[in-house]
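Example (one chain per record):
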Amino acid sequence: METEKATKTKRTEQKIQLVKGEFTPSEASDVITSLINEKINFHKIQRLQIYEGNHGCETDQLDGRIKELEEEKRIAKEFIANSRGLGNNLKINGVLEITVAE
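Predicted structure:
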């Protein structure tokens, strides 16, 4: 009797549709601001954990990323404000693409 080996396909990519749809400027602002703020908070917690482990550690990379995200949030708010002034709704299509790091 011969046993067959089941072959498993390894997934190396995953896509998650996080946000999709048309939003009023106020709704779009809430969605975008919330997402960016969550990512900023994630980096702030990472920075605090590193600092607690070693008060002399460098957190320049995390500080830089937080500043980048703050700037992106400012740009997004400006873009949304311009759309609000024109009376336009906004479409948001946010897909997370996850791949295996090799």
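Caption: The chain has a mean pLDDT of 91.
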